[in-house]
Amino acid sequence: MINNIRVKNFKSLKNIDLPLKPLNILAGLNGMGKSSLIQVLLLLRQSYLKVTRRLELKGNMVDIGKGYDALYQFATDDMIRFAFQWDKNKRAEYSFECVAENNVLKRMKETATEEHIDSCIHNLQYLSADRLGPSIMYDMSQNFVKDGILGAHGQYASHFLSANGNRIKVDSKRLHPAVSSPFLANQVNAWLGEISPGIKINVTEVPGADKILLNYEFELQKGRTQAFKPTNVGFGISYALSVIVALLIAEKDQIVIIENPEAHLHPRGQAELGKLMALAAASGAQLFVETHSDHIINGIRVAVKEKHLPCGDAQCPWFYKVTTEIEQYTDIINIQIDETGELSDYPDEFNKL
Fold first, then answer.
1. pLDDT at position 292 over 90
2. In the 8-state DSSP scheme, what is residue 224?
3. Is the domain of 142 the same as that of 41?
4. Chain segment 155-188, per-residue pLDDT in tens
5. Is 60 exceeded by the pLDDT of residue 17?
């Protein structure tokens, strides 16, 4: 697990030095630099520096553009620097020479203790804000599903459920209290039931088409409804499905990045997702969640208050911009959550999430 991240001269991040927790809720108004911090991790993941020794600004996870898009506008030199710390004194440092028109940046500095970070980054799970909405069929990918990766758009979540729903067991900390079965399919149904009560997912492989057919049923007092296509149910369930699967399968020390998990969800569902995030962090995963939802944050606060997650394991870095006569850059108020669920700070714009 990463204990600290430092970023210099990357986009609006002039000089950020941020201690990290198992659960990191990145908050703040639009355009304040939250996504830029996430993009540091995504750039390292898509570049696979252990092999390439260079930073790929354009890739399958993020497209920054060219060097002039990546470099802090008011930088006094042409070097972008990332540094990570874990296990007390172990660090990994990365320095890249930024050439304005290049979309590949040459690495300028080597450190000898990067194996842990390389492993964490390589195993990263990322769900972008641009997740797939309702569809009748979803793609398959044997390689992604074998590695437990759901795709940046959540496009392989249905395939993962089809392949593993009745095979993988969810650990005890993340079990929904209303369902005794630990199997992933049952737990996904239970947690989705907080968004749409009584829901049951059906996933079926379409022979010869490399597609997964998905539909939903709902509980009646006796039996169930007919199966409904996702396109006839609503956006919130489809947007939340991959988020819930990712939180239930996250492994110890795995980095999970989720953007805007609250999309299209009722406030109750948002709060329940916040609780599940806390339970995933309590199970050993490290989460970076970018959100504009006070309901997500409140769900986490309640989880801390109810001791599902130690208060020292969650924080809410608040991103904002500092503007002077000659420059503008991102700064952070690192809001902590105490044992009663109270926040250590309430910035002026906090109620404008």
1. yes
2. B
3. no
4. 999 999 999 999 999 999 999 999 999 999 999 9
5. yes
Cβ neighbours for 122, distance < 8 A, ≥ 6 positions apart: 45, 48
Domain count, the chain: 2
Where among 245, 266, 301 does a domain terminate? 245
The count of other CB atoms within 10 Å of the CB of residue 177 is 6
Higher pLDDT, 90 or 120: 90
Residue holding tokens 């990322």? 126
Residue whose token pair is 């968004």: 195
Q: Which residue has the tokens 């039931």?
A: 193
Q: pLDDT band at 123, cuts 50/70/90?
A: confident
List the beta bridge partners of residue 5: 18, 84
- Token pair 């609006």: residue: 12
**Other CB atoms closer than 10 Å to residue 88's CB: what's the count?**
7
**Identity at 274, one-letter amino acid code:** G
* Selection from 304, 154, 177 nearest residue 238 by Cα: 154
Sign of CA dihedral 279, 6, 263, 58: negative
Residue 40 has pLDDT above 90, yes or no: yes
**Single pTM value for the model:** 0.95
First CA to last CA distance, the chain: 28
Where does a domain end: 245, 273, 293?
245
DSSP readout, 182-201?
-BHHHHHHHHHTTTSTTEEE
Q: Are 163 and 140 in contact (CB under 8 A)?
A: no
CA 117 to chain centre: 17
Q: Which domain holds residue 57?
A: 4-21+37-123+312-352
Query: What number is the average pLDDT over the span 311-332?
Result: 96
Q: Which of 189, 212, 211 is nearest to 201 (CA)?
A: 189
**C-alpha to C-alpha distance for 104 and 47, rounded to whole angstroms:** 9
